[in-house]
Amino acid sequence: MRQLPGVLVVEDEPAIAELIAVNLRHNGFRPTWAMDGASAQRELDAVLPDVILLDWMLPGESGLSLAKRWRADARTKAVPIIMLTARGDETDRVAGLDAGADDYIVKPFSTKELLARVRAVLRRRAPEQAGGVVKVGALSLDSSTYRVSYNEQLLKLGPTEFKLLHYLMQNAERVHSRSRLLDKVWGDHVFIEERTVDVHVKRLREALGVNAGAMIETVRGAGYRLTAHTAQPVPSAVVIPAPAVVIPDSIRDPVPRQPWIADRSPQ
């Protein structure tokens, strides 16, 4: 029998948590409820869910702090996190994504949208078996083992960054607009701001490191491109000193003034 995807709902309002849990259960998910950070951590220690729905405003430790802590933990690093919050400003969205959230839903939200976003992050988490190994320069991605390496050194990427890199590597040397990346990586049915792409590209570059990260180029006014032809540093010009010129004493000495020149001065 197929195991239902597990969803950890971290929400301190029982009415909202119950509404989310009922809809998840009726749509083929296995929800678990935690009302604060401490109980959520106990659930994570017992068994890892397939996705976490995390409220920002929680008693005690905030959802933002929990997201940062779980992203820093090797055991929970790859679990997708969807942030639930009433804070809808752009700065709050960016803060949530920078903290490690894979998606961001502003309250109030429709249950249809919530379910669509949960399914979307689960699709992004699943390795793409048919892709095999993709190589661009010294960068290699194996979708069957979920491994990325640069110059034979393994790199650690989150699920969204892995999917984003996979798409860029499969379509290397092409410029991709933010809207196209949203459609191909997040799905055309998911309503996310284009700024989300910038945040995840920034996180992807940081995960790849200086050399591999430089392979992802920003094309002003167009989007992003992954290339194996990174810009090489321009060598500094070599300045060759001019040879010293020796002036003979006969030339260096002033020419004696002729008397006839002085005699022609006006009287």
Any overview of this molecule?
- By secondary structure, the chain is of the alpha/beta class.
- It is 40% helix and 18% strand.
- The chain contains 10 helices and 11 strands.
- The chain has helices at residues 14-26, 37-46, 63-72, 90-98, 111-125, 159-170, 178-186, 195-213, 249-252, 259-263; strands at 6-10, 30-34, 51-55, 81-85, 103-106, 133-136, 139-142, 147-150, 153-155, 216-219, 223-226.
- The strands form 3 sheets. A 5-stranded parallel beta sheet has the order 2-1-3-4-5, sandwiched between helices.
- Helix 6 (159-170) crosses helix 8 (195-213).
- The model is unreliable at 232-238 (pLDDT under 50).
What distance lies between the first and last C-alpha atoms, to the nearest angstrom? Answer: 126 Å
- Tell me the strand order in the biggest sheet: 2-1-3-4-5
Poorly predicted runs? 232-238
Helix-strand string: EHEHEHEHEHEEEEHHHEEHH
- Beta-strand residue fraction: 15-25%
Shape estimate:
elongated
Give the helix proportion (percent range). 25-40%
In DSSP terms (H or I, runs of 4 or more residues), the helix count works out at 10
Could you tell me the number of beta strands? 11
Rg to the nearest angstrom? Answer: 31 Å
Q: For the residues shown, what is the average pLDDT?
A: 82
> Main beta sheet, described?
5 strands, parallel
Question: How would you classify the helix and strand content by structural class?
Answer: alpha/beta
